[in-house]
Amino acid sequence: MPQNGELPAAALVEAAGTPLGIYLHVPFCSTRCGYCDFNTYTSSELQGTGTADYLTAAHAEIEMAGRVLADAPAASTVFFGGGTPTLLSGAELSGLLAHVRDAFGLQDDAEVTTEANPETITPQLLEELLAGGFTRISLGMQSSNPGVLRILERRHTPGRAVAAARLAHDVGFGDVSLDLIYGTPGESLDDWRNSVQSALEAEPEHISAYALIVEDGTRLANQIRRGQLPMTDDDDLADKYLLTEQLLVEAGFEAYEVSNWSRGPEHRARHNMAYWLGHTWWGIGPGAHSHAGGVRWWNVKHPRSYAAALAEGRTPGAGRELVAADDRRIERVLLELRLADGLPLAVLTDSERVRVDGVLARGLGELRGDHLVLTLQGRLLADAVVRDLLD
Question: What's the rounded Cα separation, in Å, for the pair 274 and 76?
């Protein structure tokens, strides 16, 4: 990594012609959930590094990124993730957004999202965020079942996420998303049905539903390994996914990506679409990842190391790689096939296009113009379809 964060000329040329997204990783959590392996830290893990150090460093990285991407278009999306971004104040979050606006510019219709844990939401915070330029709130609901929340070690109570979503609407947000997780050990199909129906009661514009991934090294993985909790099987996950699709489509949602549903194209998560479509994004914060023109890089993970690098005027980047052209093509297949708009057949090699007939014959995909689109059954087996297609 060049110490000033500079990128190769070819990457900058490509970045100048593609949409730009900015991601800000806020690494703070009040407690660590048992299933989580994200780059987050509680106060006891920060070794004296606090929010003031983070803010100083994040503003410094915004300044550096603005210099490197001086010829890029104005940002079309900004996303605050974590961690729990809303452990920062509304003024602090809005200050970071204002600096992004100054450094990169913002498109007039820019999507500006912050993730939030339901227990951190207050009317005052929402009003400050709305006034500061935020347009979208993404709430981590996970489940409405108290037993499931307890196993996941979530702090909010059942119903809190729905109340927070309604509050966001009342304050004036027209784009509210709820994140759900299915497949928690011990969760029944009726438990999951109730969670989806509870989410729908909030009338959100967007719902994400992800199968629980048990990550090595987490407390949840250790509990399953010791036999304290059962491991969910694939058939159970499939049943819950099909139920999700049924309930959400009946409620007026459409799946635009395997794990994401919206009330029409205007409510798709545009920032996430930028990831799936391989656009340019710069990740601000400890452990954040970035991409521009086939170059990927990632920051050091610990907030103290991150802050120290920027205090010394050097990049917080820990390393970077140049992604070969064929690897980028393979990633397009992996990611774009998950989208409702499908994968352009032109992305496939001649031998891969021959295999499309097998996907169609098994009912896993269909052709819409010159795009291959997964059916509902194909979405259940998306990874297998990709393996079967690729050379």
Answer: 10
Question: Pick from 64, 67, 68: which is nearest to 12 by CA?
Answer: 68
Q: Which residues of 55-66 are buried (b: 16+ CB within 10 A; e: fewer)?
A: bebbbbbbebbb
| Residue 88 CA to its chain's centroid (Å) | 19
| 231 or 268, higher pLDDT | 268
Domains, the chain, in order of start with CATH, read 9-276 (3.20.20.70), 326-389 (1.10.10)
Q: Which residues contact 50 (CB under 8 A, 6 or more apart)?
A: none
Asked if 209 and 261 count as a contact pair (C-beta separation under 8 A), the reply is yes
* β pairing state of 371-374 and 365-368: antiparallel
**H or E element: which one contains 304?**
helix 303-311
> What would the two tokens of residue 382 be?
């998306």
Mind listing the pLDDT tens digit for each residue in 31-67?
Answer: 767 677 677 887 767 766 789 999 999 999 999 999 9
166-202 pLDDT, tens digit per residue, is: 999 999 999 999 999 999 998 999 999 999 999 999 9
